[in-house]
Structures are given as C-alpha cells and as structure tokens.
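dude i think i finally got it to work??
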Amino acid sequence: MTAPGRHMPCSSPLHHRSPTTRRTTRAVQQAGRLLCWSLAAGMTTAATDLIASPRTPWWEATWPLPWYLTCLTIPAWALLRAHEKAALSAPDHDQLQDSWDQAA
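look at this
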C-alpha cells in the first residue's frame, strides 16, 4: 500500500498523453467552464427578472440568452467528454507492448 497522496508509477495515464488528448482535455475543460458560467448567468438573470421585474425593451430579449447558451453547451460538452473518455480508455499499441515487455 502506498502512502496517502502518492500515486503508483503506472496508476495514471497522465504522463503518456498525446497532444491530441491534451487538446481534447482542454476543450472539455473550456466547454465545462462555459456551461457553468452560462448556468450561473441564467440563474442570475432569472432571479433578476423575478425580483426586480425590469420592464425595459432590451431586457425581454436579453434575459433568456444564457439559457439558450446552456442548451447549446450541454451537448457540446457531452460529446467532447465522451470523445475524451474514449481516447483515454483506448491503450496505445506501443505503450501496451512496452508494458508487456516490462512485465516479462
């Protein structure tokens, strides 16, 4: 058993990521951040609409925009995340051969 907070040498594929996987991970993180911020903005505008009841003409067109952005971001994040998980779970052929040689 290892000490708390320490990783086994082969426990994480983070050290062997390809540049494509890093780009995918970065895209997933950015899409996740956009999703979180659009949800926060949507809840803020909904609360403002409920409490303050602004009656300006631009408000009626503006307050649902974060919710539309959320609806667009959810499928994009889900597709990117599925792509990232598929890329991380598929072992690289060369890496697999190296681990077999090491085990032998």
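Helices lie at 19-51, 57-62, 65-89, 93-103.
im so relieved honestly
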